[in-house]
Amino acid sequence: LTTITPMKIDCCINSCIAYTARYSHSDLCDFCGASGNHEQQFSYMPLVPQLQGLFAQEDTVKKLLYHHQYNHSPSTVNDVFDGEIYQSLQDKFVLVDGVQKDYEYFSEQNDIAFSLVTDGY
Hints:
elongated, about 15% strand, two-stranded antiparallel sheet, single chain, about 20% helix
């Protein structure tokens, strides 16, 4: 179905850390002390190829443009794009490392808003 290959990454048996970067040669988990024998893995799907795939399909591109064509009604909440945080960001300039860019959040039709949900961490 896809040419995107998941990356398998070793992690602590208790899911404390991924054995990458500074932890790649660890013998013990720095957080729980579990053996770092890399018995557990998680799969990671790289984001950029996923986004490239979405923008390669004409019908999907039309769906992705929904937010840019959405008409907000201040008195109702019908969509995530009516939410307080999304609306407050629309009139703000993007800041990267404290430097203001010359464009606002969600001002271009190809901008994408991501929502991040975690499992308690």
